[in-house]
Amino acid sequence: MKDISHIAFELIRGKSVKLGGAKSHLYVALHRREKPEIAEILIGYLNQLYESPVMLLADYLEITLTPGNPIMHGSVIYGLIGPWWQWHKHSFSHIPCWWNDCPELGAYFLARCDEENQLLRKAAEAALHIDLSSVQPLQQEIVEAYGDLIADSRTLLSVLRTNQAYAGIPLPLIKAKNEEGYVFDQHHRVFQEDIACGLSLLVAIGKRLNVPVPYINEIYLWCCEYIGENSATVPITASWPEIRVVTECA
Description:
By secondary structure, the chain is mainly alpha-helical.
């Protein structure tokens, strides 16, 4: 699936889950080797499961390159605790929210990463002779997904801060050791999934297609250092076989 059907947070196993706004449309893709009748059966089942209509995309890379959690979470993390912001090497005195409290610096890095992701899209289209026009800029993607839930759609920052579906989602912070305040949970999925498996893939695709992605790479390398991973040996190399599979199927 291209997107999650809705946002879920504050998950407590067996007790509670909070849900955000649902998407107006959902999209799925299959490898091209799958038979058309299989796709029709799948779409039929999915449309029974979800209230929002489910549509089939033409190419799997439309999902791979759709801007989402890897660049969104990574940019906000870097904007908050990276070398250019006030919380660098300091604990938080409270627990801010991802998007209501998104810093301007985080939105700046996110916009730059989104531009680089669009360059990857165009390069993939040229190299593979496919149409990836459904991979839209992030601001447009969010506005089309959430519509009236967004109070101010003028800028990327205002979209993030005024989207009701994003409201009240706290940063994944834990109590800091040996000091007061809170720090990021380095074992949270925003690092172990969005950075190690998401940003690393975009960095590797950039290398494969010879497209410079300096902002994505800067955030990726810093986050790897922050969680203590060797970026040269773990995430990127693990991504390379997956890229070969995707391009051959395309």
